[in-house]
Amino acid sequence: MEIAVVDYKGGNVQSVLFALERLGAQAVLTADPEVLRRADKVLFPGEGEASSAMQALREAGLDLVLPTLTQPFLGICLGMQLLGTHSEENDTPMLGLLPFQVQRFVPDTAHKVPHMGWNNLQAMRGPLLAGLTEADHVYFVHSYYAPVGPYTIAQAAHPGPFSAAVQHENFYGVQFHTEKSGPVGTRILANFLAL
Amino acid sequence: MVKKRLIPCLDVRDGRTVKGIQFEGLRDAGDPVALAARYAHEGADELVFLDITATNQRRQPLTELVRDVARVLDIPFTVGGGISTVADVEALLLSGADKVSINSAALARPAFISDLARRFGSQCVVVAVDARLVEGEWQVMTRAGTTPTGRQAVDWCRTAADLGAGEFLLTSMSHDGTKAGFALELTRAVSDAVSVPVIASGGAGQPSDFTAVFEAGGADAALAASIFHFNETALPALKQYLHAAGIAVRL
After folding, report:
1. Is B49 within 8 Å of B88 (Cβ atoms)?
2. pTM as predicted
3. Quick check: is B130 catalytic?
């Protein structure tokens, strides 16, 4: 199986590569459209700020390539948010593969921003999250979120519900860090590789 | 809801884990890679790795060791010690660190915080604050706690948060290694002053110290070293204790 990790010079990709290595999977870090098109699975880790990430994708021509991919695709954290249509973070147009608009959390005394730490998943559905229960925790670090919608395949709360995972056709996204979520995250990555 | 985090800290010098009292009298606590793997397996919520000699010897953190630790670690991993440039941070992230902890460089040049937040995002910028109680005031120290800065802890945290700090690692030097409990008032004051998460550090001795720092201190996470390294309190037992005491933790 060929696994491609999108290299857009922004995210912390090493953690994802190590997580795949721990699963015994060989992954290639690439921005080459040909390599991305022929891979069996594509992962898109993201960290950082939305407009810089979109700019980096445009410079690499990936804003046009990623939407045409047909194999299972997993966007992680900012990589999930980029699948939406727009982000409040510096008023940024995103890839537009899923019909959500990314919003900023509003902090209060009991709910800090960024939403940082381990939170449990709720209302999971579909093969990516197979085998998980609502007692399972995953690791989040983010200040912006996608609202709940028909595309939501798991929710978390901070304090209101938001999309912890989304899906449309072959495009999956997780707001949490699968690669940093202990055995639960490993299970989700293994589920993705088995899609 | 987001859970309170327990974070073992590996103070590393010359490739070994060490631990002292109030930043002095270091003793050996083992191989950092083996300790990291053990803590992740035991349910640590995160791991912090501080290269404690880096600032004073002007040496970059050991990126090879970071890589070896990151390779075995399936939980978040913060690295600090001697970080003073954007290139330092880039090298650590490329080695597998998830966040970096900055201290002296941020005090010397506060704009360093905003430089990093813009380039890598606030989520990976942890500002470490070493504070010492002097005549009733929490004074911020720099250069591994050796030099007073004249800054007051709450003021500095507010400034750093405005510049883009994503989290604070707040260490009471007056409590570090004493096992007499965390600095509750300091932790509460900083936690109330900033909207980003606060990791309390320094003074963990027994399970009730953690309950106190999460409740009275308002901490989002608690960091400890000795009690974990020397097997005085095992992580799984501590988590069960906190759960029974009504603290929301990841079991």
Report:
1. no
2. 0.93
3. yes
Output the six-digit token pair for A13.
């990709």
SS3 A162: strand
B45, B130, B176, B220: the catalytic one is B130
Shortest Cα–Cα distance, A15 to chain B (Å)? 5
Q: What ipTM is given for this predicted complex?
A: 0.91
- Tens of pLDDT, residue by residue over A82-137, are 999 999 999 999 999 999 999 999 988 888 888 999 999 999 999 999 999 999 99
Q: B70–A14: do the CB atoms touch at under 8 Å? A: yes
CB pairs under 8 A between A and B: 100
**Model confidence pLDDT, tens digit, residues A10-42:** 657 889 999 999 999 989 999 999 999 999 999
- Is the minimum CB–CB distance between A104 and chain B shorter than 8 Å? no
Q: Is B193 exposed, middle or buried (0-12, 13-18, 19+ CB in 10 A)?
A: middle
Q: Rounded to whole angstroms, how far apart are CA atoms A5 and A39? A: 9
CB contacts of B114 in chain A (<8 Å) are none
